[in-house]
Design the sequence.
């Protein structure tokens, strides 16, 4: 992990396929991380000036054991059955340019059941707008114990897609690593995304 002056952690701006180790700057293992998702609806120019249409992006986390989905956390199931993964709640419209997280998923890595070896984070447009109608969208991974941002992945390029397989955390020896996936796809719910998730496992 990169560190700057005085050992301060520097955010890694992740690119598609990049993998980072989820370790603290002091070499310890991360115990709790938060995947944050933020976005704004992009203003659209119309006959009567610009207007903004509400966009409802949803963050989901799918828990896998040996490439089989065993649980999912999303706006209709806010806590995994074992309690290790929690969604903070549905945001229907995104941010008003504040740059903060509009939805968050908390993962207590120490409590993730031993048979779960990967957790995949996805985002989908429940209202069906494409990413061309969204601006300033990102996902980021934060060390929940101290609020330090570990990595950020920007939803760049927009395009005619309604969903993205964002990233995954997976067991790596005694700890965990994170891989930015960044695969654009289409779907209104996480169920629609399963065919696109499986090649990334």
Sequence:
């Amino acid at each position: 992990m990169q560190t700057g002056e005085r050992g301060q952690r520097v955010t890694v701006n992740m690119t598609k396929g990049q993998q980072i180790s989820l370790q603290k700057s002091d070499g310890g293992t991360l115990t709790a991380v938060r995947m944050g998702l933020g976005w704004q609806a992009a203003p659209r120019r119309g006959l009567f000036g610009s207007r903004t249409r509400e966009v409802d992006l949803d963050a989901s986390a799918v828990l896998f054991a040996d490439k089989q989905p065993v649980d999912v956390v999303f706006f209709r199931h806010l806590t995994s059955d074992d309690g290790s993964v929690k969604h903070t709640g549905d945001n229907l419209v995104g941010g008003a340019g504040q740059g903060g997280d509009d939805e968050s998923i908390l993962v207590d890595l120490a409590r993730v059941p031993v048979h779960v070896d990967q957790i995949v984070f996805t985002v989908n447009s429940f209202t069906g707008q494409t990413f061309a109608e969204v601006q300033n969208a990102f996902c980021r991974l934060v060390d929940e114990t101290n609020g330090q941002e570990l990595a950020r992945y920007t939803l760049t390029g927009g395009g005619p897609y309604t969903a993205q397989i964002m990233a995954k955390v997976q067991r790596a020896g005694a700890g965990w690593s994170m891989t930015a996936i960044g695969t654009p796809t289409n779907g209104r719910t996480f169920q629609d995304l399963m065919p696109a998730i499986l090649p990334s496992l």
Notes: The chain has one helix and 14 strands.
